Sequence to fold (283 residues):
Amino acid sequence: MLAGVVSVQFGGALAATLVPQIGAAGSVVLRLLIATALLLLFARPRWRGHRPRDWATVGCFGLALGLMNFAFYASLGHLPIGVAVTIEFIGPLTLAAVLSRRPRDLLAVAAAGVGVVLISQALSLPFADLERTGIVLALLAGACWAAYIVFSGRTGAAFPQLEGLALAMVVATAVVLPFGIWDVSVHGTSAWDGTVLLKGLGIAVLSSVLPYSLELLALRRLTPAVFGILLSLEPAVAALAGLLVLGQRLDPIQLTGMALVVLASFLVLGLGASRRRQPDLPA
Fold:
């Protein structure tokens, strides 16, 4: 899972250079199209022999995955990225809180939540200055992220290896494709050159194929509650990458946030991260 967190951050850095060229919807569609093609090529999923219940699980997984990606990218057009990330994290942290079984679990959720807010510096802007459209989109992304965690675990249990993920990516691509077509109709295709396609390939591998595959495998071993809290490592890794790669300094408040996120991770790992996820899944 930690490898997936690191992969996402490198993919996010690359995506930041692509969105200005082809827009948010275009970036999401290009990334998912390439990622879906790669997963279908390597996973070679079976299209027959699955139960209706399993298809429903894959459908919900793909729907959550597609909407999560589109809603978050769209929110960045209305909110600073730190604020959008913080609002989006309400989803997985709420899921972790709902599935918590002990006071120590709730302490870890609280520490992770406060840590994410401090790292992202989301409190630096007054709430009144934030666009309501962006807030709604970020909340939608967070809700879809929580659904993604639940259905990723169920898909991993119902399908062997990466079969379920490949099928879900087909659904996710179908969900966002209309937005991508509209985006191209507005902005045109002049920006879609070889460089854009190469960036799209890199983003697809780093932000979709690797992390989604690793997360699906992780959810076969971790409970959704533990997984949701460990996701709070993402902004901490992003801030650390900014320091090491871009020379972006971290202030004491951000360092405090990183310490809280690390504390939350140690708390949940100490609770037994190797427990199977089934007992914590909602019916």
Notes: The mean pLDDT is 79. The radius of gyration is 18 Å. The longest helix spans residues 2-43. Residues 2-280 form one domain.
